[in-house]
Amino acid sequence: MTQLTAPTVPAPAPADAPEALGAPWPASARLGPAGELLVGGVGLAEAAERFGTPLYVLDEAEVRARARTYRRALPHADVLYAAKAFLCSAMADWVAEEGLGLDVCSSGELWLAASAGFPAQRILLHGNAKSPEELRLARRLRVGRIVIDGPAEIARLAALVAADTPQKVLVRVVPGIAAGHHAAVQTGVGGQKFGFPIEGGDAADAIARVLDQPGLELAGLHCHLGSQISEVEPFLQAVDALVGLMAEVRDRYGVELRELDLGGGHGIRYLPGDRELDLAEFAVRVTDRLAVRCAEADLEVPRLVVEPGRAVAGPAAVAVYRVLSVKHTADGRCFAAVDGGMSDNPRPALYGSPYMVRLVGRRSEAGTARVDVVGRHCEAGDVLVRDAVLPADLRAGDLLAVPAAGAYQLSMASGYNLVGRPAVAAVKDGRARLLIRRETVEDFRLREVGR
Predict the structure, then answer these.
(1) Which residues face 401 on adjacent strands?
(2) Share above pLDDT 90 across residues of the chain, in percent, rounded to a whole number
(3) What mean pLDDT is reported for the chain?
(4) Known catalytic residue at 334
(5) Is the pLDDT of residue 320 over 70?
(6) Of 88, 105, 294, 378, which residue is the catalytic one?
(7) Using CA atoms, how far apart are residues 258 and 168, in angstroms rounded to an integer?
(8) Phi then psi for 145, rounded to 5 degrees?
């Protein structure tokens, strides 16, 4: 058994040494004496000056460290990075080099991964509405696993596969467990578009149909409970439900399934006091529960699969905005409008998601004020951070930084008001490089083919 040892107490830092900020900022985030905020050794104000704003600053070392943490915590499991959180070629490279697989849910994500050289056998394709073209692409690229999410996919995929070159598949089941921070992302309960409910027999029927297809090799079961889950208990309940179904499959068809995919949804901190999923607790309790339930059912323990996305990418990025105006209203409200908004981060408008924000690039000696940080779009709901505590002398031209910006922001970005999506810069060891350029009005114009 691995023993935990007391950490070495570091020597006191020099009085003028940059101050570590702690979660939800990246581990490398340091606050300098003049008010500058450094991530990966790069000042955010410097990066904003070089690349413009809005800007997403992505800490490569943080991504890699979080991927390694999953590999260490779950050495006998398959860890697949959920590309829907955020994907670019560099991200695909980093997670591949750290030993993770990739979970994709569209031909776009699949093509990008393939063009980046990601090993196809380490890719899993899922999604509730895969097109025939997406299934053909997955077959042509020889992806390792395809998740069957609806009845039509069984026949559609079977028609593409010859019996002598079977496709390994998982069947996505709905265990009837509610988990996640918002009703819109609670995918483990019935009555919604994903998967086959266990209750009522839909999952058992789908499994029987898959087993009937000689070109499909049923490797195991898949489920996804929701997003931003901070407790281990829902995953334990999922293990109970899925092992029970595995035992039923063994008893009815004589087939022991070898893989159990619990999906992702692992919660992170967006505010300093937030609860996040304890990965060490998750690893111990889930693997123990799986072993116990399999022993009770006289099953071999299947290979565990997990799909973290937010937990790898989310804390690794900081969004940087420039204040365009500060408005004080007669009822005492203060609004700071920035050069981004719901087009690059729709989560506050969609889910009421809270964020923190701080001034960067200068130190203020003024007192504080309550400020709503709002976006530039033509919607009253375009609010990035409500009731933020910011310097009372906040003014146009100031820079604001929002942490925990690496997941489900740029991946959900839109072209509302034809405001181009922001650039992404990677930082590491004091150096910054552009990964994704800023989207321009010319990019929008080039999509037009006639008038």
Answers:
(1) 320, 358
(2) 87
(3) 92
(4) no
(5) yes
(6) 378
(7) 11
(8) -140, 145
